[in-house]
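Database export, one record per block. Field names are fixed; values are copied verbatim from the stored entry.
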Amino acid sequence: MDLAKYRNLFLEEATEHLAEMSRALLCLEKDPADGEAIDLCFRMAHSIKGMAGSLGYDAITEVSHRLEDQMAAVRAEGRVDDPTLLFRGLEGLERMVEIVRTTGEGPPHDPDLTAALGHPESPPKKA
């Protein structure tokens, strides 16, 4: 199996998903109840989680899963009150994807970021 081929596909798609998520979060800054932007952020986090998981990039999988959980909570509420934590998650994923791009290896875990994004059963810490 040619992992470089799959890594390159991951990098291409993850970069596109992160750019879409960034645009959607900027929309949420202007309109915190923009349902399309909320759904888009959720889907992009979900897609990145799946792609990273299939390649064994556990740190990316973990952060994208926590971000997906945050977006699920935002979806349930119908709005985002403060997108700061979501932007922090996005920036963390961007850093992690860049590590894959430059080293060809999965990034290390970021316990501070995963703790800030919280567990699905507990409320997130303030960013």
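Remark 1: Helices lie at 3-30, 35-55, 58-77, 84-103, 111-117.
Remark 2: The chain is about 75% helix and 0% strand.
End of record.
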